[in-house]
User: Fold this.
Amino acid sequence: MTTLITPADIARLVAAHGLPALLLRLADAIAADFRRWPAFDKVPRVASHSQVGVIELMPVADAEHYSFKYVNGHPGNGAAGLPTVMAFGVLADVATGAPVLLSELTLTTALRTAATSLMAARVLARPGARTMALIGNGAQAEFQALAFHHGLGVRELRLFDVDPAATAKLVRNLQGVPGLVLTPCASTADAVRGADIVTTITADKRSAVIIEPAMLEAGMHLNAVGGDCPGKTELHPAVLDAASVFVEYEPQTRIEGDLQQMPAGFAVTELWRVLTGQAPGRRRADEITVFDSVGFALEDFSALRLVQQLAAELGLGRPLQLIPALADPKDLFSQLQPVPDLRPPRCAAYSTAAIAAAVRSTLPVFSPATQMRPERTR
Ligand SMILES: NC(=O)c1ccc[n+]([C@@H]2O[C@H](COP(=O)([O-])OP(=O)(O)OC[C@H]3O[C@@H](n4cnc5c(N)ncnc54)[C@H](O)[C@@H]3O)[C@@H](O)[C@H]2O)c1
Assistant:
């Protein structure tokens, strides 16, 4: 049996552990897997682009587990009442190929993206960073805010979104978080001024310039999350030129990240090398660092493994017969035995006479000869 995890299960899991503890645990789980980097079979995600968005498949595996995520990015989806990003994924057993977990990944993507941003900022932001500009206050924003507040000690969030309703929603959701000051700002430049960390998490299917070189200040860390697709960027190329740039998986970020604007030889450092001590993270207090985040399959792998473990501990999820249960593994054909159709007849499709005949056929049959009722069926 495959275990099915729904958004309601994730909400229960968060309620049981608390969002701060879960974000920290997820950041640790992702970091632990990044430290095992060579153990994974990796490939840039496979993307299918359209005029309005992208649909992507993200596979990764180690010797024991395989996972993939289906995820989209449609910045105009709000008009259709749908989120920009929707996702689900599978964790499978490498030894047999059996899918063991089928999980929602929309909420989990927001959790794992925030946890990955935290993991990167721990080695790239200036120690003692307390102020963060948060540009783009949509679906992902609260998760980022809470990861940096609880995991790094950020105390003030300077907020900007071109949609004031998105900022108002964020303020509504986070007001009352102890020790967190929320400051809505009039523009990106206003929000970024004086910030130790700048998180950009906007959605726009074009090469936007959210952060200009003139906005940079010595020692800033930029957590650039929204530029994650060919033709979809957030940073002016001169911002990357002025910074030390860190990425998840270089072959994928060269195609999808803000890095797509830079020449092939532009130097970047993969985060796993920093986490294993093979490369430095931040080297100086006045250095400008950029985490050019695009989202890598390994983060979903770590999240699926953690969800599997915590759901089992809490008894969450439900068994799903996704694969046929076969008495004889070679007798797949026997699964095609007709199954009785228990659906009620669709009356609108029948004439009155046909309905009357159908009703009569369900009544007990009387014998005209004896006028005796047949035995009741037990
Ligand atoms: N790197 C990753 O791992 C990762 C993971 C998840 C999502 N993302 C990306 O993050 C972005 C945000 O995702 P979301 O689910 O929050 O989307 P969303 O549509 O819910 O929110 C995006 C917000 O950005 C705002 N925005 C657009 N252009 C702006 C601009 N020029 N200045 C300020 N605000 C602007 C929009 O008004 C909206 O409120 C998307 O681009 C998505 O693809 C990346």
User: Anything to note?
Assistant: The chain has two domains: 2-107+300-320, 124-295. The pocket of nicotinamide-adenine-dinucleotide is lined by residues 73, 75, 84-85, 109, 113, 135-141, 160-163, 166, 201-204, 208, 210, 225-226, 228, 293-295 (CB under 6 Å).
